[in-house]
């Protein structure tokens, strides 16, 4: 007899918990990252920025206003000031007391436990952020050849070029928004000269885009799936991984018959 398996079970799919399992816990907190690991994500995605005093912190917006009880720009606050903020209670009372993690802290806690998809967020605001990220990874021995558990990505493609020079053995990705719907094969070849991943908004993903990205030698991890339906559409389009707020929508380990 042939066991009927769902589409999801048949296909190998890399499961990336966006800002951690941010559908279930406050984004970019240790709680959200822990939850992503519990839910068997292959990677946690984190947004890295820099404080006024040059420390790397993990937060999405360029201000602390939306996701903490403070106000102001990340780059205008010291690490000490940022660490005093509550980054959990905006999401729910159960997470009161979560703080904005440092990059170091995330590496120390999750090295070897889950892959880390590191987004350099708004690197144009933070001179030297690529070097600081590279130094932190080198110091923790996470820059070794073929280390496929760390990927560095950004919407700022110049920043990714710079990072690739600093960390030639690590995988890099270019993030793209809606304006890249008609990306040409030439542009993809250009990206492929320094990047291993082309990670677009899921809105622009078509069969043709997926095959062109593969043709150029890159993998494609679209963002951000927030429903089962959206995840299934991406499965159908044969992407390589799905960046999602809900890791339960994506099964990373297929049932083999
Ligand atoms: O990983 C891709 C995704 O995180 C990019 O968008 O705004 O959530 O950082 P954003
Ligand atoms: Ca991100």
Automatic annotation (TrEMBL):
Residues 13-254 form the GP-PDE domain. This is Glycerophosphodiester phosphodiesterase. It holds the Pfam family GDPD. The lineage of its organism: Bacteria, Bacillati, Bacillota, Bacilli, Bacillales. Keywords: Signal. GO terms for molecular function: phosphoric diester hydrolase activity. It comes from Planococcus donghaensis. GO terms for biological process: lipid metabolic process. CDD domains: GDPD_TtGDE_like.
């Amino acid at each position: 007899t042939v066991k009927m398996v769902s589409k999801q079970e048949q296909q190998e799919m890399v499961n990336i918990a966006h800002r951690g399992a941010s559908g279930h816990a406050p984004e970019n907190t240790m709680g959200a990252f822990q939850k992503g690991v519990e839910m068997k994500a292959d990677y946690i995605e984190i947004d890295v920025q820099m404080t006024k005093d040059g420390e790397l912190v993990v937060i999405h917006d360029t201000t602390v206003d939306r996701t903490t009880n403070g106000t102001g720009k990340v780059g205008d606050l010291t690490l000490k000031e940022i660490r005093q903020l509550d980054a959990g209670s905006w999401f729910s009372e159960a997470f009161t007391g979560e703080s904005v993690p440092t990059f170091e802290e995330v590496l120390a806690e999750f090295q070897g436990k889950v892959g880390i998809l590191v987004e350099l967020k708004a690197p144009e605001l933070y001179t030297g952020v690529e070097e600081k990220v590279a130094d932190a990874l080198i110091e923790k021995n996470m820059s070794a050849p073929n280390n496929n558990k760390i990927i560095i990505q950004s919407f700022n493609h110049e920043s990714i070029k710079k990072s690739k020079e600093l960390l030639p053995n690590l995988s890099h990705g270019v993030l793209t928004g809606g304006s890249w719907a008609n990306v040409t094969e030439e542009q993809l070849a250009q990206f492929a000269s320094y990047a291993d991943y082309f990670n677009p908004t899921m809105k622009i993903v078509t069969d043709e885009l997926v095959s062109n990205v593969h043709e150029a030698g890159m993998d494609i991890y679209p963002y951000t799936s927030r429903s089962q339906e959206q995840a299934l559409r991406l499965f159908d389009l044969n992407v390589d991984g799905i960046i999602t707020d809900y890791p339960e929508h994506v099964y990373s380990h297929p049932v083999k018959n």
